[in-house]
Structure formats: C-alpha cells, structure tokens
Amino acid sequence: MKKDLLNLYNLSREDFDNIFTNAAKLKRMLKKGIPYTPLAGKTLGMIFDKSSTRTRISFEVGMYQLGGVALFLATRDTQLGRGENIADTARVMSRYLNAIMIRTYSQESVEEFAKYATIPVINGLTDLLHPCQILSDIFTIIEKKETYEGIKVAYVGDGNNVANTWIEAATKLPFYLSLGCPKGFEPDSDILKRGMKEAMMGIELHHDPFTAVAGADVIYTDVWTSMGQEDEKEKRKKIFRTYQVNKKLIEHAGSDVVIMHCLPAHRGEEITDEVIDGLHSIVIDEAENRLHVQKAVLEILMQGGYYS
Fold it and tell me: Which positions are annotated as active-site residues?
C-alpha cells in the first residue's frame, strides 16, 4: 500500500527519527562524493501553483542526485489549469510517474490528489501546512543542538502554515513550543486546540513576543505576509512591527539561542540584517537541509517504504 507525506500529524516519532537518520546518511555520502542512485529509472512529477526557489531546486536536484528525474509542471501548463478535475489527473499521472510533489494553495486539493493517486504524494506546501520545511528544520536543530528533546522552540510572527506545522510536530516529538503571535493572527484554531491537548511537552500561545522567547533555545520566524496576502501587506507591517526578530528580542532568549527562518526573508521587517547574518543564525544551513531531508523522504516513499 502506497504512503504519502501530507502532514506531520500522521507520523510517529519513529517515522521522524528514521527520516532524520536517513537524511544524515545521505548528507554524509554527498559530502564525501559517494555515488548513491537508488531511484535510477524513477520519475517525480512536481506540480506548482505557487512560485518557489528552495522547494523546486531541492526536489529537482535531490532526484538527480538519487539517480532519478524530476519534471516541473506549472499548473497553467497542464490540463489542471483548464479545468480537468483532480481525480482524473491523479489517476493518469499515477500511470506515468513514481511520485508526485504538489505546492499549492489548498490542503484539501493535496489530500484529494492523494486519495485518487496510486503513487506517493508529497505536500510541498499549502496555505495550511508545510511539512517538508519543518522536517528540515528539526533535522537542522539536531545538527546544532544534538537533539530535539527538551529544547524550547519559540515561533514569533504570523500564525501561518509554518506555525501550524510546528504545532503538529510538537504533538509527536518531546520539545516545548512557544508561539508569539498578534491577536487575530494566531495559528489555525483546530490545529492549535488539538496541539495544546496532545503536545508531548507543552504548547504555549503568547501575544507578547518577549514572553514567547524567554529562555528559548531556538527562535524561529517567517514573513508577515504570505503568498496570496499581498493586499494586506501594509496593514500587517503595522500590526507585526513589535514582533521583529532583532537584537533586543534575542537578548531575552537563552545565551546559545539559534535563529531560524524558512526563507525568503523580508529583511528589515520580520528580521533584521544584524540577526539573520549574525553568529546565532543557522538560516543557510537550514535551507541546505531541505535537500538532504527531502532526499530521505523521496528514497523512503519511492522505494515502497514508510519511514519506520
């Protein structure tokens, strides 16, 4: 039976750890120049409704390094853009491809695609969730902190798809999650409610960013205005101005705090140059690890396994 990666809530802790172990192995092999092509002869279809830098490059390069081929499919260039329904598209693509990655707006569309596809479907991003990003983030934390157990992750900013996915991760792994979001810009209410009930070590929601980051091992932020919200940009800049990750804010965290941002960054808005380019920043390492973690997921799913 085929498996998908649509969210993090459906993964077990063993699933997470197996992905991280595989990603570490693949990263070591790549750095040592050891050829490894378990996906030779396999093809990944990549459906994009939203523009991308890291998602497209990391999946495309990852498939190449694993011996396979990735096809970039902009929705406007397919029959999806002319009204073909998702079920028909999923069934047909399943006859051509070995897996599909989708970066789109609607979580429901990705789940419907997975329902009708007979091959693995990977959520490359939706407005609700961003599982590939958070898997890579936690892998990066393991590299820098040696573990995710017992650490405090403080997310500061808009309660968007990244924040929602951090909440899902906190229900499966033993770390503390502290959210600092303005009133009216909290994470998805259903995901937050479930997360607070099921989190292994606790989730807190604050409307004061300084309270949110107190004693944090990790401070994480994202853009204040996501794709599709451009009309709200000026309004959001005013509401979020006190949530900027700057030198003053990080002084309230732990002395060895690391700074993370999923990129692209709007420098001077949600984060300052001084912080994103500073000694505490691991943003570029975090971006690199999208490649290694997604390769781990691709190898596992396209070889018929499911993490654990």
Answer: 103, 130, 133, 222, 262, 290
